[in-house]
């Protein structure tokens, strides 16, 4: 029997909080159901349509979840290889869909959104090795400005463990042919190998199963950000933390790449694995509480990163049931990066992390003036020593939240959270 995957609009749990934990009666509001024949991997909303990236095809449904049509996602009509979606994004002012998938060794192509998703007029088969070609590898893409005020695709990838090919971790790519343009960095392959049994005299090596997982990407203040779960360091590669990677859009060679730890605490306990995130504004009450602008015109200073975290099992990146919801003002993220970069330029800390360079170096003291808009490049791959910390009273017991979206109703902030068990929670923050 085929396994079916469902979208239901909406199955909600109307949520109320008491004693800092969820006490939720459940109500069913089912306005429509769509049954997919295979896993729904990616989706985007375009006007009044929902585009579902399934294994092998793109399926289009309407807002009432009624089937419209499907197209084969592999653009090569002569190939029998299935296209497992890694990234779907609307581009060119809503005229095109960029689809990246596992076929042709991790390739990307563009389709017209007007009509039935036919290939774009400037379609050219990409050469691959743009995104991971394995199902169990993460991938994020965001469209943003770069050097010369041109528009590029920024792509972040998990390293496939089954190949010696160097796949870029983060790259800036031309939107015409998806080739790397003046900016990328890679994992340092030699430092990902460890002598077996930690025996310094051993002659054989084994590849460390380094776990990286990209969760969210966003742009703010002329920087591109990636939210990622990664090892604390290579010497503790089974201890995991959540970090934000940041790149200056105008830096050609990504020398301004920096990282800092993002921490979320509930009831005095750190929840170290980020599971979902959303960038947006809260309602008037929350904006005032956070001392953020609550009336137009709005800027990046008014935005909040809402993120859900779970605790990991010991020596593992596997999430444990129970999710904490933390909020971070984007202005605090910017100031935290500024603080950590200033430290490095005062000679405190190291370049890193150590899986990007085989010889991490101490930060070099330099008189360059650092402020919130700076893109200094004398120190590379800065790993901040001071984390950004949030403490929350909002906790979802017994559930692992896998997606979150936030909206406002009157003056209130409403979060919709999907769980790994297939439940949607509606929560007033």
TrEMBL record:
<dbReference type="Pfam" id="PF01403">
    <property type="entry name" value="Sema"/>
</dbReference>
<dbReference type="InterPro" id="IPR031148">
    <property type="entry name" value="Plexin"/>
</dbReference>
<dbReference type="InterPro" id="IPR036352">
    <property type="entry name" value="Semap_dom_sf"/>
</dbReference>
<dbReference type="GO" id="GO:0008360">
    <property type="term" value="P:regulation of cell shape"/>
</dbReference>
<dbReference type="GO" id="GO:0005886">
    <property type="term" value="C:plasma membrane"/>
</dbReference>
<dbReference type="GO" id="GO:0002116">
    <property type="term" value="C:semaphorin receptor complex"/>
</dbReference>
<feature type="domain" description="Sema">
    <location>
        <begin position="12"/>
        <end position="429"/>
    </location>
</feature>
<dbReference type="GO" id="GO:0007162">
    <property type="term" value="P:negative regulation of cell adhesion"/>
</dbReference>
<dbReference type="InterPro" id="IPR001627">
    <property type="entry name" value="Semap_dom"/>
</dbReference>
<dbReference type="InterPro" id="IPR015943">
    <property type="entry name" value="WD40/YVTN_repeat-like_dom_sf"/>
</dbReference>
<dbReference type="GO" id="GO:0017154">
    <property type="term" value="F:semaphorin receptor activity"/>
</dbReference>
<dbReference type="GO" id="GO:0050772">
    <property type="term" value="P:positive regulation of axonogenesis"/>
</dbReference>
<dbReference type="GO" id="GO:0030334">
    <property type="term" value="P:regulation of cell migration"/>
</dbReference>
<protein>
    <recommendedName>
        <fullName>Sema domain-containing protein</fullName>
    </recommendedName>
</protein>
């Amino acid at each position: 029997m085929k396994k079916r995957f469902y979208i239901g609009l909406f199955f909600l749990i109307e949520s109320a909080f008491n004693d800092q934990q969820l006490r939720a009666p459940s109500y069913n509001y089912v306005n429509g159901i769509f049954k997919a024949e295979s896993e729904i991997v990616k989706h985007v909303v375009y006007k009044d349509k929902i585009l579902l990236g399934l294994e092998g095809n793109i399926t289009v449904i309407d807002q009432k979840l009624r089937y419209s049509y499907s197209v084969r996602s592999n653009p090569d009509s002569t190939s029998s290889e299935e296209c497992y979606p890694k990234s779907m994004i609307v581009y060119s002012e809503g005229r095109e869909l960029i689809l990246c998938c596992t076929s042709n060794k991790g390739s990307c192509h563009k389709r017209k959104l007007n009509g039935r998703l036919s290939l774009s007029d400037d379609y050219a088969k990409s050469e691959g090795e743009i995104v991971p070609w394995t199902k169990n590898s993460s991938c994020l893409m965001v469209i943003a400005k770069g050097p010369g005020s041109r528009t590029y695709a920024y792509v972040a990838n998990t390293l496939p463990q089954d190949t010696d090919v160097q796949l870029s971790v983060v790259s800036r790519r031309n939107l015409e042919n998806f080739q790397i343009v003046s900016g990328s960095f890679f994992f340092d392959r030699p430092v990902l190998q460890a002598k077996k049994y930690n025996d310094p005299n051993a002659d054989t090596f084994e590849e460390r199963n380094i776990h990286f997982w990209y969760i969210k990407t966003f742009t703010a203040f002329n920087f591109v950000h990636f939210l990622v779960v990664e090892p604390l360091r290579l010497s503790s590669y089974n201890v995991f933390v959540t970090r934000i990677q940041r790149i200056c859009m105008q830096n050609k060679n990504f020398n301004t790449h920096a990282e800092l730890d993002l921490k979320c605490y509930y009831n005095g306990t750190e929840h170290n694995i980020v599971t979902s995130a959303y960038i947006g504004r809260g309602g008037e009450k929350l904006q005032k509480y956070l001392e953020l602008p609550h009336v137009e015109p709005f800027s990046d200073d008014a935005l909040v990163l809402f993120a859900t975290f779970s605790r990991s099992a010991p020596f593992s990146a596997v999430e444990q049931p129970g999710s904490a919801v933390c909020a971070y003002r984007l202005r605090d993220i910017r100031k935290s990066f500024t603080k950590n970069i200033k430290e490095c330029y005062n000679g405190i800390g190291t370049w890193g992390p150590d899986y990007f360079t085989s010889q991490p170096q101490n930060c070099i003291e330099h008189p360059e003036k650092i402020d919130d808009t700076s893109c200094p490049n004398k120190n590379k791959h800065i790993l901040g020593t001071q984390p950004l910390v949030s403490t929350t009273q909002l906790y979802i017991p017994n559930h692992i939240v896998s997606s979150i979206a936030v909206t406002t109703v009157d003056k209130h902030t409403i979060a919709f959270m999907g769980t790994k068990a297939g439940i949607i929670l509606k929560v007033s923050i």
